[in-house]
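From the thread on structure requests for the teaching lab: each student submitted one protein with a one-line request. Submission from student K.M.:

"Model Biotin carboxylase N-terminal domain-containing protein from Aliisedimentitalea scapharcae, tokens only."
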Amino acid sequence: MMFDTLLIANRGEIACRIMRTARAMGIRTVAVYSDADRDALHVQLADTSVHIGGAAARDSYLRVDRIIAAAQTSSAQALHPGYGFLSERPDLAEACVQAGLIWVGPHPHAIRIMGAKIEAKAVALAAGVPCLPGYAGADQRDETLIAAAHDIGLPVMIKASAGGGGKGMRVVHDPGGLADAIKSARAESERAFGEGRLMIEKLVQNPRHIEVQLLGDKHGNLLHLHERDCSVQRNHQKLLEEAPAPNLSATTRDAMFDAALRLGREIGYDSAGTVEFVMEGETEAYHFLEMNTRLQVEHTVTEEVTGLDLVEQQLRVAAGQPLGLTQADIRCCGHAIEARLTAEDAALGFRPQTGEILHWAPDPGLRCDSGVQTGSVVASHYDSMIAKLIAHGPDRDSARKSLIRGLERTGVAGLGTNRLFLRDALARDAFAQGCATTGFIAAQWPDGWAAPAAQTTRLAALARHSAQPSGTSPWYGLGGMRLLDQAGQPACAQYLETDAPDAAVEIRGRQGQFEVTSREGTVSCLITRASATEMNVIENGFSSRYGVFDTGTEIWLWSPAFDTSHRLSLAGDLRLATRSTTDTAPDRIVAPIPGLVADLPVAVGKVVQKGETVVVLESMKLLMELKAMADGVVSAIACEPGATVDAGEILIRIDITKGA
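Reply posted by the TA:
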């Protein structure tokens, strides 16, 4: 019998995704939320919501006791963990069982044994699943690990046994780097997962990341739902995923299905889960990587090609219902590709972005799984994903082109995103031909991705001059157009860029017909506004449409060619204002973004060298090492491990004269 109330022990996109299916099945939903998520979309969509603690995940979404208490006080009968947070923690599954709640996931033993890579590899070998040569022994002394690496043969991959997401992983090519790599991998693993066990494996050259979706029930039925390719990654974090995998032979595909099913049967797997493989791009030799005992972020592409709702299947299985499907019922129709849209500025090395989403308009032609809306706030406490955008088509190229068009038509203002980077990745020949490996991004942009060059100051000035902003601003009460119109002269106003006051833009005209003079010269244009956030500009007979959002102090512009923002002022106002700067000096370490101090490896009085890490900042699950910009001696420390800091906050001062 199906339960009627479901608590979702998660937040953001996946919480909203689960609620959508639960609502369609007539199941009431209970959301949990932290201090930072009081106004989050998943809280608004739920039938009931329960506050569970502070903004930091360790004070809320990682608290088993508070989540179980929330389920009990809200009369929930079942609990879905989503992905991330506690989804692969057996203690939450066991606590559910002890509290009489239905756990929407596999049995705790499967979670426990697959959650540690060392034990998971042993199970895979026992099931006859190909594994990479490596060391996964109990002796974790540094000298033992170094000797094992030499026996395996460099290059090797050092991996944390616990957790995932690329944390605790180091690639080592040079024997001299083994000791430091082991030390840093262990420290990162202990910090992220609470344990420092490591394993070492032979590094695969030109690897592809292929995974097989499994679905089992409590009655011994286990099926595969075909495969996905998740090779396009940055720092082991997936960015583009697709189903089915391109350029994969039928022989290898069937062998991987068989291997995944053997592993699933070895542990009696009874829910949705994924077996991941690393495969050599040229030879198609594949090896077991890990098993994720939960719903994957990229489950959407499997849903698109199979027509199945994986969350619905999870809920039915958890309620004790048999699958009602056979392997012959599972078809793979067409092709689907997912892009993870994140609040990261790809042009600045994917620096995390925080702040309010002032405007959010995903292209309606794409499937959009998101946990945000206009007005949502992206904070530094959680990951940076804004949405998953998915295209499905009859073949791979049509899906790829649909996703490119959809990304170009998606509008987001208020913070930087990786939207155009994703578009460019999809358009690269290596991806278009289905030849991407996990080294795709480094190979395509060895010096980092650069945003397309665009002259947009004049467009921002036109946007402000031609219509009322979406926000409120005193500029429009004193607009140059209105004042000059009263004098019977052509409307004229001059705008200056706050950060570049020498770049003036002068606009003359009225009723949508303007003459614009800037450093690029003088052009005549015709402007129409389809809406408050859409501006159509005709120049020399060529028409272009731009997205625009004006807060009154900042203008956000987006198009297929750029994402940018401008701070414009009327010439007289800016010339009276005092210009500020956020430039840093070598004698201070300043937080570039809001975040949590994850590590502080220095103390007052310590001599540091240029390039030495002095603070490790964590923001949106990413670790950023802040390094000394000059030799010197630490003279003052204004932060401590575990503290939350704001962007621009001075963390450390260094006396560079003493180090000279």
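TA comment: Residues 468-490, 576-583 have pLDDT under 50 and may be disordered. The longest helix spans residues 250-266.
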